[in-house]
Amino acid sequence: MSVQILGLKEINGPLVVLDHVTDIGYDEMAELHMEDGTKRLARVVEIQGDKAVLQVFEGTNGISLTNTRTSFQGHPMEMPLSPEVLGRIFNGAGTPIDGLGPIFAKEHADINGKPLNPVSREYPRNYIRTGISSIDALMTLIRGQKLPIFSGSGMSHNKLAAQIVKQAQLSGDKDEKFAVVFAAMGVQNDVADYFKRQFEESGVLERVVMFLNLSSDPIVERIVTPRCALTVAEYLAYEKGMHILVILTDMTSYAEALREFSSSKGEIPGRKGYPGYLYSDLASLYERAGIVKGGNGSVTQIPILTMPNDDITHPIPDLTGYITEGQIVLDRTMDQSGVYPPVSILPSLSRLMKDGIGKGYTREDHPAVSNQLFSAYAKTQDARSLASVIGEEELSPSDRAYLEFGKMFEEYFLNQGFNENRTIEQTLELGWDLLSLLPKEELDRIDEKMLLEFYTESRAKKFKRQIHSV
User: What highest taxon heads this organism's lineage (predicted)?
Assistant: First the structure.
C-alpha cells in the first residue's frame, strides 16, 4: 500500500523538503499531488536522517506547503523500453512528444544504468564511417569508443552533428544493425526544429531515437536526458544486438544545469562554481560506452560540448578529455574563413584508431597516409610562421611546396559540402593526391613499397588539372 505524506516543510527553487520520511532511497521517484488534482514528478536528491529533499521536474510554481500530498514509488526513474523506440521523438524525461502515442514497453530499466564489469569489456575495434574525410582519415571513430567534439559558441557543431547522423554507417557485414540515439540538451526551439527537419528530409529518422530537452524546460529534465538516451542505447545494443552511435549535445548545457542544481542544494562549489563531483558525474555518462564480450552490439559516444570563451582548459573540456579517448577540436578561425567542417587537425586525435584501421578494416595504407598528412600539415604551419617573418619569396623550395600542400589540404580535404558523403576509398585517394604535391623525399612516414604503388609525379599534375577544370 502506498503511503502519502501531507504537506511540505520548505520550498526552495526547484527543490521541496519533507520531514519525518522513512524507508526511501536516493534517486527514488515520487509524485506530488496538487490541490487541483494534477500531479508532478519529483526525484529524491538528498536524504538527511528523516528529512528528504526532492527535485520537482515541472518546477514548484503553485505548490502549496500545506495541501500537497507526496507519494513515493519505491524505485528510481525508469525508461520504458521496446524496439519501437526507433524513429520516435521524446522529451528530455523520456515522454513521447511526436504525437504517436505512448511506448508499449516490454521492460523498464533504471536510467542510471548498470555498471559494466571491466573484465567483461571487449577492446574496441573496427570503425564507424562518418563520410567526413578529416574524421575518417585522421581521427577515425572506432566502435565502442567515446570521442568528443570540442566546439565554441556560434560555431557549426550542430550542422556537423546533423551530418554525422545522416551519413554514419558501419563498415563490413551488411547484416549488422545500426542506429543512432541523439540527445539534445538545452537547445532553442529553432535548433530542435532544425534537427527534426534534417533527419526527416534525409530519411534517416526511422533509425534514430531523438531526445529533445529545450532551453525552456526544467533543469532536472536536462540532467536526466543523457541518462534516458544512454539507457535506450544500452537496451538496443546489449539486448537487441545493434551497433548504436550516441550523440550528446551540448554537454556544456548539461554541466551548467548540474552547477545550478548543486548551488540550489547549497553544496560547496569547485572550479568556476561547478560541483566537486563534476568529474565523476561526467564519467558516469561517458563510461556507458563500450562492447561486452560475447555480445553482438556496441555503444559508441560522440559528446559535443561548447568551450566557454573557446578555452580548452575550462573544467568541462578539461575533465572530458581525461575520461574520453581523444577529441575532435573545431577551430573558430577556420569556421570564420568558410571551411566546413572547421576541424583543427593538430590538437585533434583518436587514441583508439590505430587498432581499428588498416588491413582488414579500412585499407592497408590508411595508417601511413594518416601519419604523413599529420606530419605534412604540422610542417605547413612551420612554413607559414617562417614566411610571416622572412617573406614567401625567401623560402626554400620544400617550404613553398608545404605552403601549397597546406592550402590545397584545407580547401579540398578538410573542406567538404554538408551533403558530401565520401567513402573511405575516396578519402584516402584524395590524401594521396595531396601528398603527391610534395617531393618524394619528404614523405618519411610511408615505406618504399607503398610509395611505389601510390605515389607518382603525374598524380599531382592530374590532381591540379581536376581542380582547375572545376
Answer: Bacteria
Which amino acid would we find at residue 356? G
Q: Where do runs of H (alpha helix) occur along 203-298?
A: 219-234, 251-264, 278-286
pLDDT, the chain, mean: 92
User: Cell for 388?
Assistant: 610571416
Q: What tens digit of pLDDT does each residue of 72-117 get?
A: 998 999 999 999 999 999 999 999 999 999 999 889 999 999 888 8
Query: Which residues have CB under 8 Å from 108's CB, separation 6+?
Result: 78, 79, 80, 81
Model confidence pLDDT, tens digit, residues 421-449: 999 999 999 999 999 999 999 999 999 99
Burial class (CB in 10 A: 0-12, 13-18, 19+), 237: buried
pLDDT of residue 445: 93
CA–CA gap between residue 148 and residue 18 (Å, rounded): 40
Q: Which domains does the chain have, with CATH numbers?
A: 4-76 (2.40.30.20), 79-355 (3.40.50.12240), 366-469 (1.10.1140)
Q: Is 395 helix (H, G, I), strand (E, B) or coil?
A: coil
Cis upstream peptide for 148 (omega within 30°): no
C-alpha distances out from residue 151 to 140, 188, 301, 317, Å: 18, 17, 16, 10
Tell me the pLDDT tens digit for each residue of 340-384.
999 999 999 999 999 999 998 999 999 999 999 999 999 999 999
SS3 labels along 76-121: ECEEEECHHHCCCEEECCCCECCCCCCCCCCEEEECCCCCCCHHHE
Name the packing angle between helices 251-264 and 219-234 (round to 10°).
130
The whole-angstrom separation of Cα 286 and Cα 179 is 18
Sign, CA dihedral 408-413-419-421, equals positive
Per residue, what are the HEC states of 403-423? Answer: HHHHHHHHHHHHCCCCCCCCC
Dist CA 468 CA 7 (whole Å): 77
Nearest-angstrom CA–CA distance, 103 and 96: 8
Whether the pLDDT of residue 469 is over 80: the answer is: no
d(CA 42, CA 59): 9
Distance CA 297, CA 182 (A): 17
Measured at the CA of 29, the angle between CA 28 and CA 30, to 5 degrees, comes to 125
SS3 (DSSP) at 208: strand
Give 457's pLDDT tier (boundaries 50, 70, 90).
confident
